[in-house]
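Whether sequence alone determines local backbone shape is best considered at the level of individual chains. We regard such an encoding as a compact summary of how the chain folds. The sequence in question and its structure tokens are set out directly beneath this paragraph.
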Amino acid sequence: MHSATDLSWQRISSKVKMVLEGKKKSLLQACFRSVFLLPPTTDMQGLDTTLYFETLDAMDTMLWTLVLSSPASGFTELQTILQMLLPFVNCQSAAACERAVGRIGRLSDLLASSSSVKVWSSFVGDDASPACHTQIRIPILGQLLGRLILCRTCTNWETSWGALDALHHLFRFILRQKRTMLPEDNPEYLRRQREWEAENTSWLSSPSTSNITMAFGKYLQPSEKTDVILMAIEAMRDSSIYDKEEARSILDVAVREPASWLAEVPSIMRCIYENMECIRMASAWQSLDLLLLLMTDQCPGEVVTSLLKLSPSCDSAALAMWDVMLSQPHTLKKVLRELLSKLQDQRLRRVFSSDTEDACIPHLALLASSDIESEEFASLYKVQRYLRRPSLALLSLVLRGLITLSQRPETARKMLVLLPDIMETQQNANTDNKMKALLVFRNVMGHMMREEASLTALQLAEKLLPLFDDESSQLRELSICLFKDMIQMVVESDKQQMKQNVRRSLLPLFFHMSDQTESVAKASQEALVVAAKLLRWKKLKHLTQAQQTYRIGECLVRTTPKPQGWTRGLELHPPCLLSGTEPPKGSSPGLSPLPALRMLKETLAHLGPGSGTEGSQGLQTCLCLGLSLNLSPTGLLAGRWEWPEVGGGPGVLGGGTGATETGEGLCQPHALVLSPADAGQEQS
């Protein structure tokens, strides 16, 4: 029986050698693709699947034959085959992944067998170092382990168990090599043998991602650990087939032992840089942020050098990484120190893309240190005001650094000189930089006394009004909350001037009390209460606290003056206000067509039948006034206030198809402030 089997094996081996001579890779690739990309077995119902399983068995036999046919080159052949199988493990096809994992499992079993290790070690070892001749290195071991650990949690149980089986064989292979390093008569041999057997049993009994990663981590080389990390980072991409939380578990192990796992910083930095913009899951970002902060804390020089080489022009991916590195005080100081060192290096002309951008580095470094006074820093900044016309990248980096530094009271007070220029940069800034700027203002103003902050509060309050209607709900909320704080920060002598800004904010805040984002609505209510308190408008304050929206609308309509010509325009053309159509030629230039807000419909309903046409026109006027107070039409039409279609004729809200979301055809709003003559009504 054995002789017949041996003869059959020899014949197969001979045929395989003949066919594959010089064409192994291309033929193997074609073989893998033709078999692995077949439909899933579940789609083969009603068909005879015998041929399919026979094909897989024949493939396994062929692969074993390739590896065992030549002891001298067998190990090289095995590595080549494993390398070719890896892309199929990452394939979008679950069936292809399952089949590739199965082949890896069988080859791993061959690798772990004692006879194979003994044969191959004699060919791959270093003759000059007898102690090392048993150490067989697999260059792709880290990649292989990373993929298999992730596959173990696949929903396809055949893939999951196949991956676990392959991991078991690879762990056997690693332990077998460790075992052969000690002679059997060595006193340590039996003790280590028991330890290894216990470890093998331990992670198999509870094969979680963390346990498997930690078990292998004890025996992996730094480069192999790095490859496992790289596989985990790539697995967090949105397009990845792997479980993102399991990929995070691998990184969690790495960050718990950063000295052991985070040795090859440039490789990890490159992987983060290349994948960051393809990852959108918040928890995945948190893991990457923590990984980046740990590397920055451990090896700031390597991190900074790597990122400058990866993106000298500071593109969006690099910008996001700088943002993280500057977000913590301890890492910010280290990064600034490294940047300052590179700036002083005579071999480097620049760190960033211009001299102006480089000028920010020493200034931020000075701010981070505690040995410069406010007056001295102000004088230095005024020499080269790098925040007057900054690039997008520079502004983002500086603002992130300032957010971190402004958390300390003594540093925040030194930043007062920067605030006017930061205000000016917000006219053309993107949403991200606007958010950062407001956070800087919040931190700096929060550390200042009212007397020194009052004038800045006046200036800032005016700049905040247009942000109430930004498309970003976070920016709307932050701007409204900061506006409320600025109202409370002015001293008595500046209150009259602040009232002008507050009066302009009443209708925007009223509208935003019905914002679809709950936190924005809540912030608007709180700000309106503070505004009413400053204006000494008790009725408005009480109505707002009670959230009686319909009565607030009525209150504002009755006490707000109508611009000249608006009433005539509303009387003549009320439908166009609500339908979003262009007003007829010759109508009031202040008339802005736009669909009514849901809360105004609510207000009209509460006014009751007795209000009649007068109440309807009053509410329409209120809507127009909303436009006049810097509420952009685009924001009103962006879906934050939905208005169901309501039928009706002249004098009621409805009667139109509604304006487009682009706000086309809308007239430009113009500013309106309550006149001093109306101040007396504020006491009611």
Remarks:
- The chain is about 65% helix and 0% strand.
